[in-house]
Amino acid sequence: MDKPMRIAITGVSGRMGRMLVETIEASDRAVVSAAIERTGHGWIGRDLGVAMGGASSGVVVTDDIDAALSDADVVIDFTAPTATIAFAQAAARAGVAHVIGTTGMTAQEIAQLEAPATQTVIVRAGNMSLGVNLLVQLTKRVAAALDDDYDIEVIEAHHNRKVDAPSGTALMLGDAAAEGRGVDLDDVSDRARDGITGARDRGRIGFTAIRGGDIIGEHDVMFAADGERIILRHVASDRSVFARGALKAALWTAGKRPGAYDMLDVLGLSEQ
Length: 272
Description:
Dihydrodipicolinate Reductase, domain 2; Rossmann fold; alpha/beta
């Protein structure tokens, strides 16, 4: 790439937005071309660098999505499902690639990304880190190797301000386990237990969500049988792993054909 990739960032005042700005600024392969916030936000009209407590950057925070994308190659989006759908439609109109790290999207909301993906590149993942995507592959392989004598439980922990549960990563891992067993996660998922639930049904995939403090992200996949347990684990100790993964995904989109992709495609793991 001769010129640095021009990247627009949505929700720029949030924790991930700020981390993305810092990660992109530290790269010699990309620049922040636009900073987007919701209408009425206090950063609108301010210089991004100044709003973040630093020197002037020359990028003014805006709520005009179409204008922001007019000079971008890619938009990186860690916001909320409804906003993400709007960004996907705007990115399609502008011919700008869309990297989505938004979690908590329903199947119906994800389906609304299909039309934009016919017009531009969309990379969507419940987790952008290399380690988690390797864990997804391991989970699928272990689930395929073990039978229903092994109960599967996905255990995840996040900070006390996370609004969705199970996490997008937990659902990725549950999908991988179900795929390894040749079943549909919707048919075997246990999302909550309370009161007299009875014995666990054979073949179910359970989810446990922990919320507390400033936990960035911890995910365990437990395969439990009589006499032994196998536990696959990933711990994120720094939010920058997600920003670095998102930047990697953004750079990967250059020259790709329109379509829906995920981090396994970005990492070359999709056929493994």
